[in-house]
Specification:
Elements lengths: L1 H22 L14 E7 L7 E7 L5 E7 L8 E6 L11 E7 L13 E2 L2 E2 H13 L4 H15 L6 E5 L7 E5 L2 E5 L7 H16 L8 E3 L1
Parallel strand pairs: 5-8, 8-10
Antiparallel strand pairs: 1-2, 2-3, 4-5, 6-7, 9-10, 9-11
Helix pairs in contact: 2-4, 3-4
């Protein structure tokens, strides 16, 4: 009887071993005999200048079956140039040239010409907001305000507009007489509010009516 029980025990162990063998990967001949548990593993992290790579990998055996890209963390194009007709002249030489610099980080690969609010991109929104602010005044006071725009944007070296996305949000800043900063999400808000804050920033940059820098609309 003891021998009988012994052989039963051995048989059970053998069966269990066979089952485990079928569940595991056979590393010797490359065949897979278990159900893979797939997950995406970052094999090359994305950077500000290059895409990364994820590889679909089995958690149990490490086998892979494909890759997919991880988009770069910042856009490739960060510098733009626009110009404004502040003189109502058809001659392009009378236009005021402005640099727009994208200072955003960890924002994905879409540049400012491809970040859309409805049908408009961020560059177009900035252009329309500044021209809207320039044309918003009427009568003598409006004429004087347009003169301040010409003075500010005609500064030696030109005005630079920065678009960024810091942790602490704000609306618009004028840090000195040639630098304007926009928080990108604010550019997706009310055009009327944006235009008024541009007027306020330009007034501060021109030192109008005792206004001083830095100007900051939070």
């Amino acid at each position: 009887m003891k021998n009988g029980k012994h052989w039963v025990f051995v048989a059970v162990i053998a069966i269990v071993g066979i089952i485990i063998g079928f569940m595991a990967c056979d590393k010797d001949n490359g065949t897979t005999t278990h159900t893979h548990e797939w997950e995406w593993i970052v094999t090359t992290p994305a950077t500000a200048t290059a895409d990364g790579v994820e590889t679909e990998t089995c958690k149990t055996c490490g086998e892979t079956r494909g890759t997919r890209p991880i988009e770069r963390t910042e856009p490739a194009k960060k510098n733009f140039t626009v110009s404004f007709d502040f003189q109502n002249q058809t001659d392009p030489s009378f236009r005021y040239e402005v640099a727009i610099v994208d200072k955003r980080t960890a924002c994905g690969s879409a540049d400012l010409e491809n970040v859309k609010v409805g049908s408009k991109d961020i560059i177009t929104i900035i252009e329309e907001a500044i021209m809207g602010a320039f044309n918003s005044g009427i009568g003598p006071s409006g004429s004087a305000m347009r003169g301040r725009f010409r003075d500010v944007f005609n500064i030696t070296g030109g005005v630079t507009i920065y678009v960024d996305n810091p942790t602490t949000a704000y609306k618009i800043k004028a840090t000195d007489n040639k630098s304007i900063y926009f928080y990108i999400d604010y550019l997706k808000s009310s055009p009327t509010d944006i235009q008024q804050n541009i007027v306020n920033a330009v007034n501060a940059m021109a030192g109008y009516n005792g206004a001083t820098l830095p100007y900051n609309a939070e």
